[in-house]
Amino acid sequence: MHLLEPIVEFQQQLKAIRRDLHAHPELRFEERRTADRIAAQLQEWGIPVERGLGVTGLVGIVEGKGAAGGRAIGLRADMDALPLQEANTFAHASVHPGRMHACGHDGHSAMLLGAARYLSMHRDFAGTVYLIFQPAEEGGAGAKAMIDDGLFRRFPMEAVFGMHNWPGMAVGHFGVTPGPMMASSNEFEITVRGKGSHAALPHLGADPVMTAVQIAQSLQTIVTRNKKPIDAAVLSITQIHAGRATNIVPDEAVLRGTVRTFSLEVLDLIEARMRAIAEHTAAAFDATAEVDFKRNYPPLVNHPAETAFVADVLRSLVGEHAVDAAVEPTMGAEDFAFMLQEKPGCYVFIGNGDGLHRDHGHGLGPCALHNASYDFNDDLLPLGASFWARLVDRWFMK
């Protein structure tokens, strides 16, 4: 492993920053203290900061000695926490009830800060690095909000890169793959309207409950019979609500759930078939069905050339054996996907280990993302920061 010594020497300070962020989590678009803390640190290192993109997002600007040539890239970290009650009781646990850094965004920000400090001290690269600290990744589409506020117009860049910790992957290991790496995130609500009746006289009504059951069963045929078997997709119905009494057939039933795909083409197919199946099945039962389909995040698709470049940087950092350059994609979603729709780039997983790193007083649950017992592994701080710094050096040598 070839870590950068100035970053290693700064590890304890990075750890203190990370734990301070962990103790003071803020939800999407409310990351004011977090943004203030990051901005103050960047400015202390002589890095200019532009604020107010995507409400609370900010961009630090590090110019190398050859910045006049106009080349630039972006490195992105997310800042927001989750509306979750922390189960950990160690010293840096959340001081805010019902809020927790349960996805490691505190660590992502700290790793990028470690790289920022190094780059500010070693400006022997021929270009500009934009340090993107993004709000509202957790369901708020903060990446899109920053783009809509002119991120790529105000800060022109050749490519953009992102990184996320990955529990279960060994510390010192990375995972990346060209093409789809994370899925689109979408939710739906199907409202079935029939005609209520007494449960003893069902023939006098049009039962929305049985109609909803038939729709629920039929929707699974989209995955098994309409899309190509080699195209991955998940259609999960997670809620069915109807009625309040045992002897009354209600007027209405509601189904809710999620759809995940690795391509927009498959997503288009699923949405169209869902609407057709719901509407025509309802009609067959003398009912009606209204489908509200909401597209949240698109698939996260890594660009091949940038992914190959990242894999080479990783191999030079940790060795061939510690880089899975064809890591299995996940049906989880990430709004960095919006940035990759606008610019070439790549997203990478950094192993967070199996949870044994957690301080005494951690919760009894697993060290898994979005779990109340989670904590970021501080051993990753110099590793992630070194990766960012080496990526910058190698990029501007191209």
From TrEMBL:
Protein's name in the database? M20 aminoacylase family protein
| NCBIfam families according to UniProt | amidohydrolases (TIGR01891)
Record keywords: Metal-binding included? no
Q: Name the Pfam families on file.
A: M20_dimer (PF07687), Peptidase_M20 (PF01546)
Q: Which UniProt keywords apply?
A: Hydrolase
The record's Gene3D superfamilies line, in alphabetical order, gives:
3.30.70.360, Zn peptidases (3.40.630.10)
Q: Where is the Peptidase M20 dimerisation domain?
A: 187-283
Source species, domain of life: Bacteria
